[in-house]
Write a structure and sequence with these properties.
75% of the residues lie in helices and 0% in strands. By secondary structure, it is an all-alpha fold. The protein folds into two domains: 184 residues, no CATH class; 196 residues, Orthogonal Bundle (Lysozyme), CATH 1.10.530. The chain is rod-shaped, with a radius of gyration of 48 Å. It starts with a helix and ends with a helix.
């Protein structure tokens, strides 16, 4: 293992120990330290008796949730990093497997070549021995010819020229035999050199295979270690999720307690004082100014006094005809099916539940004091139910105030600036800020908010 890899491994082990053992080395991650966990338990057990105590406790729980979200994000990143490293190691192991297979094939092929070369060397050696025997016979004949006397030559040959022809032929044969013997010897030396080269190549390749096998084993060991750490990280991640869920549940309970402590019942049409108390509660959760929220709801439904006088037609053909709850041309809204779902979940009869009537320039079907269309309500339903700790009801004063506050906050009203509130009011009414035909709505909301702000000052002074 390289030194850099070893350092990485030690760092990884240290990181996991920090995550798994809160007291290890004195480091404390947010939400993971002993103090953080103890604080979480205190928040879960702590109760509040006044509105101010509940608001303070809710703020603490929000801070704890943010800390847990940060740790969850960090743990998710660590999971992704470990998983990426495991994927890289898995690919590296597969690559080494293929390389080892390739090397073994080459080694096997070299073995065949070496065997063939050894056979060639053996055959060449036999040829050398045969050539040596033939050459020895030729040399013996030449020697014997050299020992023959002149008288014997004359007596054994018809004429002298035949004797010299035989002698020249033997000499030529001797030279060619020696040349052939030299070529065979050179061939043998070449083959032996090739065999030695093949043996060396095979030996080197076998060493490479051993190295690759060791690398594969090292990668497998590292992957096993990281998979183990990933399991630890996953367990820690799930623990953080449980803690966050428990904290959010407790925060929802505190929100409900805050609302109860405001002492406002869920009436159909609250007084201004009652509506102001609800708006203050919404400000705590959304940052929207009470006077501005009340002004929007005044424009929409006279703060709950006018939530609509129409109903969903039973005949589907009448829906489009009357524009009671039909999507405008080209829109992909699904208001009718969402309306049926909302009323069914709340146990309401969809055909006797009031909705807004169609305007001369638009469409009907808005619900409750905040006049949300069903499609928009569904986009906020999850957040509302998490904050309320129960099913959200668009016809409830409490739920409608909070839904409107969330919507306006999302579109800039939490800035509490003139421009931010004007833009939020425009989007609340028309979905954009670009149509001058709808400027009247935002301008009217701000004028009403100015009047409500004065009323609130008088109300607060009278307490």
């Amino acid at each position: 293992m390289k030194i850099s890899d070893f350092v990485k491994l030690i760092s990884l082990i240290f990181l996991v120990l920090v995550l798994v053992l809160p007291n290890f080395s004195g480091f404390a991650l947010p939400g993971n330290s002993e103090g953080g966990r103890r604080g979480l338990i205190v928040f879960a057990q702590e109760d509040c008796k006044t509105k101010e105590e509940c608001e303070a406790l809710w703020e603490k729980l929000q801070e704890e949730i943010k800390k847990l979200e940060g740790v969850i994000g960090q743990t998710e990143q660590e999971k992704r990093t470990l998983q990426n490293q495991i994927n890289v190691l898995r690919s590296r192991i597969q690559q080494l497997d293929l390389q080892i297979q390739q090397s073994n094939i080459v080694i096997k092929d070299l073995g065949y070549q070496i065997k063939d070369t050894e056979g060639s060397i053996e055959q060449t050696s036999l040829k050398i021995e045969d050539s040596r025997a033939k050459l020895a016979a030729i040399l013996q004949i030449i020697y014997e010819e050299d020992q023959t006397s002149i008288i014997e030559v004359l007596l054994s040959n018809a004429n002298l020229s035949d004797f010299f022809d035989n002698l020249m032929a033997l000499e030529t044969l001797n030279l060619k035999s020696q040349e052939f013997l030299g070529e065979i010897k050179n061939l043998k030396q070449t083959l032996e050199g090739q065999k030695q080269s093949l043996d060396t190549e095979k030996g080197d390749l076998e060493k490479v295979v051993k190295i690759q096998t060791l690398q594969k084993q090292e990668s497998q060991t590292t992957r096993s270690q990281q998979e183990y750490f990933l399991k630890l990280t996953e367990a820690q991640y799930q623990q953080y999720l449980k803690e966050k869920e428990a904290t959010e549940k407790r925060a929802a309970e505190i929100r409900a307690r805050i609302f109860q402590l405001f002492g406002v019942s869920d009436v159909d049409a609250p007084t201004f004082g009652q509506a102001y108390e609800i708006a203050k509660w919404v400000e705590v959760l959304t940052g929207v100014r009470p006077a501005f929220l009340l002004a929007v709801l005044q424009q929409e439904s006279a703060i709950g006094k006018n939530v609509g006088q129409c109903y969903l037609p039973r005949d589907p053909n009448e829906i489009q005809k009357t524009r009671a709850m039909a999507a405008p041309p080209g829109s992909k809204r699904n208001d009718v099916s969402y309306f049926l779902q909302i009323t069914q979940e709340l146990g309401f009869d969809p055909y006797s539940t009031t909705i807004s009537c169609p305007m001369s320039f638009g469409w009907g079907g808005a619900m409750g004091p905040a006049q949300f269309i069903p499609t928009t309500w569904m986009t906020y339903k999850g957040r509302l139910e998490l904050m309320l700790g129960r099913k959200a009801n668009p016809w409830s004063i409490q739920d409608a105030f909070l839904a409107a506050g969330l919507y306006l906050s999302d579109y800039g009203a939490k800035s509490k600036t003139r421009d931010g509130e004007w833009r939020a009011a425009m989007i609340y009414f028309s979905g954009s800020t670009t149509n001058p035909a709808f400027y009247f709505y935002a301008n009217s909301v701000l004028r009403i908010a100015d009047g409500f702000e004065n009323d609130i000052k008088i109300l607060e002074a009278s307490k």
